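Researcher: Next entry in the queue.
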Amino acid sequence: MDFALLPLEDADLEQFKKDMKYAFRKGAENGLGESEEVLPEEDIDRSLLSKGAIGYKAILDGEIVGGAIVVINEVTQRNHLDFLYVKHGVQSKGIGQKIWNEIERIHHETSIWETCTPYFDKRNIHFYINCCKFHAVEFFNQYHTDPDFPDDCEDEKFGGMFRFEKVMR
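Model: Structure for this entry, 169 residues:
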């Protein structure tokens, strides 16, 4: 297996968004039993346009099989994993772990990583806590809203969001 995590190129953007949205929708179906859109393209665009954002594509044997968007704060080195996805149909083969390991290697100067995932998504919670060694540090819900996205916490369908941190040094 020939794996690489490379910077996202403009030519890859349309397929990257399509694959990410589909992977998130399929993940939501497993948790919610619905097939509605859970990741609007505007959320991906907002992330990619954030100050310090870097998009990555995961390549396995010449094919894009996933990717990630991180936001790097060069001053504080308190960095954020906005999105990480593995293309639907190729999960459970260690690709997500390879993506995360490579992100940690590339951004070795990070002091703290932070990310969030919905309450219903047990697969993601398992991945971040048991595979990537993050710690759940906050639970956003209708009683404790995320100050950056308060409206997201009122959607009871998702049951809230866990915020995770991983202290690197």
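Model: The chain has a mean pLDDT of 88.
Researcher: Noted, moving on.
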